[in-house]
Amino acid sequence: MLEAMHEERIHPLEKLDVREKRELLRKVAIVGVDESDEIGIVPHKSTLQLHAEAARNALADAGIDKSEVDAVLTCSAGGMASVQLAEYLGIVPTFTDSTMTGGSSFAIQLEHAALAIAAGICKVAVITHGQRGHSDRGRPGARAMMDPWAPAAQFEAPYYVGGPVGQYALACMRHMHEYGTTHEQLAEIAVATRKWAMLNPKAMMREPLTIEDVLSSRWVVYPFHLYDCCLVTDAGGAVVLTSAERARDCRKRPVWVLGAATSHTHLTLTAMPDLTQTPARYSGPRAMAMAGVTHSDIDVVEVYDSFTYTVLVTLEELGFCAKGEGGPFVSGQRTAPGGDFPLNTNGGGLSYTHPGMYGIFPIIEAVRQLRGECGPRQVPNARVALVNTTGGTLSATGTLVLAAD
Amino acid sequence: MTQARPYLKPLPEPSPETRFFWEKCRQHELWLPYCRRCQRFFWYPRDFCPRCFAWDVEWRQASGRGKVYTFAIHYRAFHPAWEPEVPYVTAIVELEEGVRLYTALVDVEPEPGKVRCDMPVEVVFEDVNERISLPKFRPLPEDAHA
Fold first, then answer.
1. Residues of A involved in catalysis
2. I need a labelling partner for A21 at 20 to 30 A (CA). Which of A44, A305, B3, B8 fits?
3. Is residue A342 domain-resident?
4. DSSP letter string, A41-87
5. Do A161 and B101 touch (CB under 8 A)?
6. Is residue A369 situated within a structural domain?
């Protein structure tokens, strides 16, 4: 019944004309990406320092001076995030965006920035992230309080406090029940992702990991073993966008935004229409239709991996396999280096970095893959990349289709 | 029922839209919001139906029975109040009325294989203080549900 009620609220894809937006996006390019100077455990840097380092590094990557930046987008610098960040960086923007949809904020902000640039509202946009997920644990006042009248405060917090792990565990359990997904299949993802991390010098976890290691690790929240869960790190990241015209003079080859789409279905878990689904089933097809690509056109996939399950369900929702077949799809180390489905090639939130909201890092990695900058982990001839980021409790997704010339 | 130690978990703070629900919980009754236009229950309480947006809703008493839609077994407490209880089981229960509540299971063995999706459950109320009784769920014998 919940499902039926939900479907009624969705605008069917065929009603959407994506052509106009496709034309707009063609006027925009991603020209700079980078992390903060240090990622991992960085207790000696503040959140704003992580933002600023990443912004400086991404602008240097683009070859663009800060004085050209007229759009600031961020979700992770306090309650009026982009206002705080612009002040800190010394920018008076013509376009601002503090959209907060959790880990999907950055892909969704990229969509906004691209459309704003295409519309001529601004010329150079910087999207930044900085977060001390590791070092802020237990630091008084570091985390915002929820309104005690909020639905989740009244109807979830009395039973569970502790963030996404308990909520994603509930979703994963239902998937295992309905589709027979196994712990071994989830472990395949953790192991394949670790193999990519071993090829990335910036990754935090670079020791070999086996399926047996995953299955013998302790339960955190059943059905999740320790290695089904992402890292908790400190890190910053930034992405720079500009017009196609300005991109011609940048330091590196532009990466094009072929498609960008947003969806969200719920915030409170009991309002989630079906625990085995995610809004990627809406944002994914829309972004791909906009880009004019099919699944076989995509060379590399970067999917938010807060948990192994997030990856498995997202691949289904994006249509890379049939619903319920995510487990068999990832089996046999298919997503590992050398496999036929290169996935989370930086080592992901599971093994590279995950400061609380990971969503800017899959964008950074997709751009690097499309530029051919990834050294030993480079996917040969990567020309089209799909990025899907997820925020909240499988709540909000931003899907991007990016491409090199 | 008195608590052996002070109650440290977060407690619901009834809001204008939910006060009736929590008052009924205190009387050990489970009431749900119902849309008179759709003739359907919905969750969580609002002044209107989130489906049809009719501001024509009423409260109806629920049977208190349902089944475990999904569950999770917590081996680690992320909040000190739960530390004495690990491992403990959270669940989403789908009620006979078609809505799903986030809750905790009681009277179950917190072990993989001992708790399962679709197992029939019924509501019980934990009296926390003079104001709040929390709905939780316990297993029902399979035949009682049939």
1. 304, 352
2. A305
3. yes
4. S-TTS-HHHHHHHHHHHHHHHHT--GGG--EEEESSSSTTHHHHHHH
5. no
6. yes
The verdict on pTM exceeding 0.90 is yes
- Closest CA in chain B for residue A221: B74
CB half-sphere exposure, A310, CA atoms < 13 A:
34
| Predicted-complex ipTM score | 0.95
- Say if the Cβ atoms of A220 and B76 lie within 8 Å: yes
Bond into B44 cis (ω within 30): yes
Contact A159 B72 (CB under 8 A): no
Residue A164 is assigned to a structural domain of this protein: no
- Check: CB of residue A385 under 8 Å from CB of residue A401: yes
Write the DSSP symbol of residue A332: G
Q: Provide the 10 A C-beta neighbour count for residue A100.
A: 18
Containing structural domain, residue A380: 2-135+230-404
Whether A192 is covered by a domain: the verdict is no
Q: What is the pLDDT of residues A7-65, one digit of tens each?
A: 555 555 555 678 888 889 999 999 999 999 999 999 999 999 999 999 999 999 999 99
* Phi, psi of A247, deg, nearest 5: -60, -25
Q: Which residues of A345-360 are buried (b: 16+ CB within 10 A; e: fewer)?
A: bbbbbbbbbbbbbbbb
Q: Structurally, how many domains does chain A consist of?
A: 1
Residue B37: closest CA among B21, B16, B58, B22: B58
Chain B closest CA to A156's CA: distance in Å? Answer: 6
Q: A222: which chain B residues are within 8 Å (Cβ-Cβ)?
A: 72-75, 87, 112
Q: What is the CATH number of the domain that holds A34?
A: 3.40.47.10
Chain B residues inside the 8 Å CB shell of A5: 40, 50-51
Give whole-number Cα distances, A173 to A10, A91, A211, A371, A404, in Å. Answer: 26, 46, 19, 39, 39
Of A1, A158, A161, the CB nearest to B12: A158
Q: Is A356 helix (H, G, I), strand (E, B) or coil?
A: coil
Which of B37, B67, B74 is the best mutation test for A, with the most CBs of A within 10 A? B74
Q: Does B77 touch chain A (CB under 8 A)?
A: yes
**B-chain residues within 8 Å CB-CB of A215?**
none
Residue A61: count other Cβ atoms within 10 Å of its Cβ: 23
Q: Is B52's Cβ below 8 Å from some Cβ in A?
A: no
Answer whether A161 sits within 8 Å of B40, measured CB to CB. Answer: no
